# Entry
Amino acid sequence: MKGSERPLSEAYDVALLDLDGVVYIGHKPVANAAESLAKARAAGQRLAFVTNNASRTPSAVAGLLADVGVPASADDVVTSAQAAARYVAERVPAGSKVLVVGGWASGTPCTRRGSGRCRTPPNARPRWCRATRPASSTG
# Structure
């Protein structure tokens, strides 16, 4: 990767930041991460926090970020569960049953994408949702 002659916060409008190992490790901050991210924000760069950990909701991730000194809102966080819900909404026919295998937070974005049908079948841990299309889509 080639170096930059100017600060990355000037070269890029948005930084997509992985979390564990980049911003924090477990529940402890990575050295200098909070200060560096505050400088990037002050320079006008937007920060987006991305995680492949679907076990936490965006609000829980934002809380953990605040605990390690990085202010963030749930709107600043993108989880793999959100990405999966969007994928389903855009590519799976409306009304299809979608099995969501994961923790509680994994099924939440399915409900928030408008299905309202995410539930746990009796005697089963996985959740299922009925796929829906975003309001602006056709088909």
Remarks:
- The chain has a mean pLDDT of 78.
- The chain has two domains: 8-79, 80-130.
